[in-house]
Design brief:
Layout (H helix, E strand, L loop, with lengths): L5 H4 L10 E5 L3 H13 L3 E5 L2 H11 L3 E5 L7 H10 L8 E5 L4 H10 L3 E4 L4 H56 L7 H33 L3 H8 L3 E2 L1 H15 L6 E5 L4 E2 L3 H17 L7 E8 L2 E8 L6 H5 L20 H11 L3 E7 L3 E9 L7
Parallel strand pairs: 1-2, 1-3, 3-4, 4-5, 7-9
Antiparallel strand pairs: 6-8, 9-10, 10-12, 11-12
Helix pairs in contact: 3-4, 6-7, 7-12, 9-10, 10-12
Length: 385
């Protein structure tokens, strides 16, 4: 390699300092030269003196690109590439061969194994940098296109799923409601079956709604126009919305007497009304779901400076510190110990809605005693005159 041409190549290429490159080369001086030269360009370098060590380093560090000699003792470059392409974690890493051989069959064999490019020794610094830059750019292009396609797919799912899933459910709910409204005393068995159908349909409808809302929140999280819209939305007189959602949930569980409301009135909070309804519904639903009939569920709202603090407390199962930390999508706590219908998305949705509105949500709990979920919302301040 023409190391003396290093100075003319240093300023020609810009790279990210976080890009990791692994050099697998048994010739110590050449490996050292390549690593030093690439480190000057801003790359983070890893080295391996043979193929076996190279495979270990690749699996351990998952580099962004690998430069590998072909002719090495113990394990040659072809075997290294073949092994890494069989591993799902390393299969997509761009792979450049260094070779002193120019035989077309060697190149063909390497390409069949999945090599991305070849450099023939001796090579110039400029050739190496151009090859690396091209392969990294190609990988970025592929990742960008893949992400765009995933965004389109997620968007299509969000648009199509509500209609496709809700339509048959609406029919099920409609006919089960008709059956439940029958006055014929001989239809007790039918009415019992209709109740089961209706209950299952309602549960499934709620589950689908939560999946769709969660998907929408996640796909919109990087959309600045959407975020600006959310953070400019105001729910006026939120006490009515909060009380209404809490009462509806208490009625669902036939526990109106257990609900204790103390909601201070304020002019408005910075939350889209539909999302405020969703947050309250999910948190209050959890409070009733995980506490026993006859125990109180408190919903308390109060003003603190420029914030509106809403606290929902129940005296039920509670959560451990680890469970609170692990609040995440599709996670339901203690499922093996306590059979409970649902996807575990309720608290996740409430937390995500709060985050996207610039609000805060926290959970405090004593296992087997009580849980308090606190929502800190931003008050809507009227413009100064």
């Amino acid at each position: 390699m023409n190391i003396d041409s290093l100075s003319c190549g240093l300023l020609e290429f810009e790279v990210s300092i976080v890009t990791k490159i692994l050099v697998i080369e048994d010739e110590h001086s050449l490996r050292k030269d390549i690593m030093e030269m690439l480190s000057f360009e801003g790359y983070t370098m890893l080295g391996a003196e043979n193929g076996l060590v190279g495979i270990e380093e690749a699996r351990k560090h998952l580099p962004d690109l690998i430069v590998c000699d072909i002719m090495m003792p113990e394990l040659d470059g072809y075997d290294v590439l073949d092994e890494l392409r069989r591993d799902t974690q390393t299969a997509a890493i761009p792979f450049i061969f260094l070779t002193a051989r120019t035989d077309k069959m060697d190149r063909r064999h390497g390409m069949e194994l999945g090599a991305d490019d070849f450099l023939t020794k001796p090579f110039s610094v400029s050739d190496l940098l151009k090859t690396i830059s091209a392969r990294l750019k190609r990988r970025e292009d592929i990742e960008r296109v893949t992400e765009q396609r995933m965004e389109e797919l997620r968007g299509n799912i969000i648009l199509s799923m509500p209609h496709e899933l809700r339509t048959p459910l609406t029919i099920i709910l409609g006919f089960s409601d008709l059956l439940l409204g029958e006055d014929n005393p001989k239809s007790d068995q039918i009415r019992d079956m209709a109740q089961h159908i209706n209950k299952a349909a309602v549960r499934l409808y709620h589950l689908i709604e939560n999946y769709l809302i969660y998907a929408q929140l996640e796909t919109s999280a990087s959309d600045m126009e959407f975020l600006n819209m959310l953070r400019g939305s105001v729910t006026s007189h939120p006490r009515v919305v909060i009380e209404d959602q809490a009462i509806q949930k208490s009625q669902t569980y036939n526990r109106e007497a257990d609900l204790k409301l103390d909601i201070a009135e304020v002019a408005g909070v910075v939350v889209l009304e539909e999302y405020l309804k969703k947050m309250i519904a999910e948190v209050v639903d959890n409070a009733f779901k995980f506490s026993e009939r006859g125990t109180p569920v408190y919903v308390v709202g109060s003003r603190h400076d420029e914030r509106y603090m809403l606290q929902i407390t129940n005296y039920g199962r509670g959560m451990t510190a680890q469970q609170i930390r692990d609040v995440g999508a599709y996670m339901q706590f203690g499922r093996m110990l306590h059979e409970q219908q649902g996807s575990g998305l309720g608290l996740v949705i409430a937390r995500r809605v709060a985050e996207l509105h610039g609000a805060e949500i926290s959970i405090e709990s004593i296992p087997d005693h009580q849980t308090t979920v606190t929502l800190n919302l931003t008050l809507n301040s009227p413009p100064k005159t």
